[in-house]
C-alpha cells in the first residue's frame, strides 16, 4: 500500500517540484536580465562620462588656443569680438561629430570654470579702455565739427567768387575785393 500511495504521489510531487523550479528559474532569469540591463546603463554612462571627459579636455585645449589668440592684442574691440564663434569653429574642426548644441554646452562649462575670478580683474581694464575710446570719440567729433566749419566757410567763399573777366591779351584781372584773395593772403 505504501508503494501504491508513493506511486500516486510521485507524479504529483514531480509536477510540484518542476513548477517550483520553473518559477525559481523565472525569478532568477528576470533578476539577471534586470541586473544586466542596469549594468549596461552604467557602462553606457561610464563610456559617456569618459567620452565627455575626453571632449572636455580637447575643448579646454581649444579654449586655451582661442584665448591665446585674443590675449595677444587685449583691447576692448577684440574682446568684444567673436571669441565664442572662434571657439565653436575650432572645436568643430577638432571634433566634427559634435552638434553645435553640444559645443555650446562645452563652451559654457569651460567658460564658467575658467572665468570664475576673471570678471573682476578684467572689469577695470575694460572700463579704462571704454573711457579711452569715449575720449577719442569726443576728440574725433570735435575735429569733425572743426573740419565741417572750415568746409562751410570755404564753400561760402567759393560761392562768392566772381569769375574774372579776360581781356584781349588773355590776362586775368584779379578783383581786389574778392574774399578768396583775402584768405589767400593769410
Question: Mind explaining what this structure looks like?
Answer:
The protein has 186 residues and is mainly α. The chain is built from six helices and no strands. It is rod-shaped and about 155 Å long. The termini are far apart. The model has no long low-confidence stretch (mean pLDDT 78).
- % residues in beta strands: under 5%
Approximate shape: rod-shaped
Q: Helical segment tally?
A: 6
Order of helices and strands: HHHHHH
Number of beta-strand segments = 0
* Major sheet: none
Q: What's the rounded overall pLDDT mean?
A: 78
Keywords:
mainly alpha, 186 residues
Give a brief rundown of this model.
The protein has 186 residues and is mostly helical. It contains 6 helices and no strands.
List the SSEs and their pairings:
Layout: H1 2-71, H2 76-79, H3 83-94, H4 100-114, H5 118-160, H6 179-185
Amino acid at each position: 500500500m505504501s508503494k501504491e500511495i508513493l506511486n500516486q504521489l510521485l507524479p504529483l510531487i514531480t509536477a510540484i517540484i518542476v513548477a517550483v523550479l520553473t518559477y525559481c528559474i523565472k525569478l532568477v532569469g528576470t533578476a539577471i536580465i534586470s541586473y544586466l540591463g542596469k549594468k549596461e546603463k552604467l557602462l553606457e554612462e561610464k563610456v559617456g562620462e569618459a567620452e565627455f571627459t575626453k571632449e572636455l579636455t580637447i575643448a579646454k585645449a581649444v579654449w586655451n588656443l582661442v584665448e591665446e589668440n585674443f590675449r595677444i592684442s587685449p583691447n576692448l574691440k577684440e574682446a568684444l569680438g567673436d571669441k565664442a564663434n572662434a571657439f565653436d569653429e575650432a572645436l568643430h574642426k577638432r571634433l566634427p561629430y559634435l552638434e553645435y548644441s553640444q559645443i555650446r554646452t562645452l563652451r559654457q562649462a569651460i567658460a564658467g570654470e575658467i572665468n570664475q575670478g576673471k570678471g573682476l580683474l578684467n572689469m577695470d581694464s575694460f572700463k579704462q579702455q571704454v573711457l579711452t575710446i569715449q575720449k577719442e570719440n569726443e576728440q574725433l567729433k570735435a575735429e569733425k565739427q572743426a573740419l565741417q566749419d572750415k568746409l562751410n566757410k570755404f564753400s561760402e567763399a567759393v560761392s562768392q567768387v566772381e569769375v574774372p573777366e579776360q581781356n584781349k591779351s588773355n590776362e586775368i584781372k584779379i578783383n581786389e575785393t574778392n574774399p578768396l584773395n583775402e584768405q589767400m593772403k593769410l
